[in-house]
């Protein structure tokens, strides 16, 4: 099946529409949440539900991925402008980052091992039941 090629403007329009919707949602929400995060969630949902097809945003997405380091320049400049804050609170900020990262990794690992354990246990029960039924059938046939 041949992929349809969408123009740059068509792809940009989809991204802009998603960002405008996410800005509106961020404005309405009672909790502070970045519009960019909401936009990523909306794009994910749109791609998952085939509202937006991958071909419709793939070209622009690939182009933006190619220049991602350039897109971080404003963040770097903002960080440089906040050096006086980092001098005072740098160590606590780093501590929170490392602790939160460790906690998230630990919870993810435990959750995954729990879910895999539940899956293995349910598979074990099914195998035991199948084995018992097979034994019962063999006894009946004797």
UniProtKB/TrEMBL annotation:
<dbReference type="InterPro" id="IPR005538">
    <property type="entry name" value="LrgA/CidA"/>
</dbReference>
<keyword id="KW-1003">Cell membrane</keyword>
<feature type="transmembrane region" description="Helical">
    <location>
        <begin position="35"/>
        <end position="52"/>
    </location>
</feature>
<feature type="transmembrane region" description="Helical">
    <location>
        <begin position="12"/>
        <end position="29"/>
    </location>
</feature>
<protein>
    <submittedName>
        <fullName>Antiholin-like protein LrgA</fullName>
    </submittedName>
</protein>
<feature type="transmembrane region" description="Helical">
    <location>
        <begin position="89"/>
        <end position="118"/>
    </location>
</feature>
<keyword id="KW-0812">Transmembrane</keyword>
<dbReference type="Pfam" id="PF03788">
    <property type="entry name" value="LrgA"/>
</dbReference>
<keyword id="KW-0472">Membrane</keyword>
<keyword id="KW-1133">Transmembrane helix</keyword>
<feature type="transmembrane region" description="Helical">
    <location>
        <begin position="64"/>
        <end position="83"/>
    </location>
</feature>
